[in-house]
Amino acid sequence: MMKKCVLLTMVWLCLLSGGAVARNKEGVAYEIHFDSDTIQTYPLQQQLQETYEQLMQGIQEESSYTVLTHNLSMFESEDVRVRMQQGTLQVWQGDGKGAVVKGKLAKWKACVAEVEPRSWFASLFS
């Protein structure tokens, strides 16, 4: 009886340890508060994404938040103000009383889910 329990436990542990977890790194949350006269929101959104991609080229994920917070001026222009508040990049265009758009900035060119071993046992064979 004891041997059966041990055998079943070992099989169960092997099945659990062999799985993989897919991680998708979300990116940085942002809010854009557009000017009350703004008709098209896409150009500023595209500029924001392109600036983020340029800034994060070659940066490891652990350093991305620090790099972002130290380079907020790259996102600013004549009528655009930027600040970080509670982990969210907040952007104001003009008076900021127009439409509000929320989303996440991500490195789209390298936005592939990583598959990592779920346990040390599976990592021994990789």
TrEMBL record:
The entry's keywords: Signal
Signal sequence coordinates: 1-22
Descriptive protein name: Uncharacterized protein
Natural source organism: Amedibacillus dolichus
Organism classification: Bacteria, Bacillati, Bacillota, Erysipelotrichia, Erysipelotrichales
